[in-house]
Amino acid sequence: MSFKRIIFWAHLIAGVIAGLLIFTMSVTGVLLTYERQIIDMADRNYYVEPAAGATPLTLDQLSESVKQLTDNKPGVSLVFSDTPNTPVVAKISRRQQLLIDPYTGESLGPGASGVRQFFSVITDFHRWLAFTGESRNTGKSLTGAANLLFLFIIISGIYIWLPKLWRWNIVKSKLLFRRKLPNAKARDYNWHNVMGIWMVIPLFFIVTTAVVFSYSWANKLVFQVYGEEAPTRRGPPGNNNQAGKGGKNAAAQQTDTTVSMQNVLDSAKAYSVDWEKVSITLPAAGAQTIEATVDTGTGGEPTKQTQLTLNANDGTISRVSTFSDRTPGVQTRIYIRYLHTGESLGIIGQTIAGLASLAACFMVYTGLALAYRRLIQPLFVRRRKVKAA
C-alpha cells in the first residue's frame, strides 16, 4: 500500500470518527458568525428617544443610579457608545448586564435577553456540547479531540488533494465546481475537493486556534515560543477588589474619590476622536486610579483597544496601555482568541470565518456520504447478490 493510500485511509477514518462532532461545531460556528452585530441590532429596540431639550446625565449621576440598581456590586463597568440615543450598558458580569437610560438613569432591563440566551445556548453547544456542571469537562474533552482530528484531516486533505499530474484539466476538476456530473458520488467528490481547497487556510487557523483553547499544553506552548510563562487564570472582574473583600463597612471607612467622574469620561473620549465605545470601570471608594477602555473598532479587534489608567484626584491620564505594549506572548494569545472568530480582521474576517464554517458543514456531509458509498453500500450490494444467487 502506497504512502498516499495510507494517508487517505487515515483521513477517511478520522472523518468518520469525528464527523458528527465537527459538523456540530461547524453549524454552531456559522450561527455565531455575526453574534456581536445581531445582538447590537436587537438592542436597538431599546434606543432612547429623549424629550425635547433633554440633556444626558453626567457620569456622576449615572454611576449613583447604577450603584443603586446593582446593590453597589464591585467591578461594574459602564459602556458608552458613539451611536446617538444608545443606552448606557452596565456590565455586571460576563453574561449579566443592564441597559440604562442616559437621560433618566432608569433601568431598561437586560436588553434583548432572548437573543442573548439563544447565542448563549449555541455557544454552550459549540464549546462543550451543551453539557452542564462537571460534565462540561467531558464535553470539552470531546470537542478538543475532534479539533485535533479535524486538524489532521485538514493537513492530510491537502496532501490527498495534490494531483499526480499538474495538468490544467485535472487541477480544474479539483479547483472549480463542475456541472452535469454523472451521479451524486461525483458531485460529492467535486464539492468536497473544491470547498476543501478554497477554505483550507481559514479552516486551518480556526481549528489551530481552537486547539489552543482546548488544551493547556497548547496554550502554554504559545507563551513558550516567546520564552514566557503562561499566566494563571484569574477570576471574574471584581473578585480581587478590596472593597468587595472588605464589604460596605470597610468601604465606608475610606475616603471617596473627589474627582468628577464626568471629567474622567471626557478625558477618555478625548483620547481618540475615532472612539466607538468607551468603558469606565466604577471605582471602589478610596481608589486612587480609575480604569477605562477606549475601543475604536468593532469590539473584537484587540489592536484597536487601548487601556487607560486615570488619576482619581484630578482625572488626568496617568498610564496608556496599547496592544503593542503587551508582551509578545500575551499579544499572540489575545490575537488567537479573536482570530478564531475572524473578528481580529473586522467584518471581513468574520465573514470569511463564517463561510469557512459553512464549507466545513458541506465537507462533513460529502465526506460521510463518500465514506458510506465506499464502506457501507458495498455490503448491501453484496448481500443482495448473495440472496439473488
From TrEMBL:
Keyword DNA-binding: no
Biased composition, class Low complexity, residue ranges: 238-254
The keyword Transmembrane belongs to this UniProt entry's keyword annotation: yes
InterPro entries registered for this protein in UniProt: PepSY-ass_TM
Positions of region (Disordered): 230-255
Coiled coil location: none
Keywords assigned: Membrane, Transmembrane, Transmembrane helix
Pfam families tied to this protein: PepSY_TM (PF03929)
Spans traversing the lipid bilayer: 6-34, 145-162, 197-218, 347-372
Protein name per UniProt: PepSY domain-containing protein
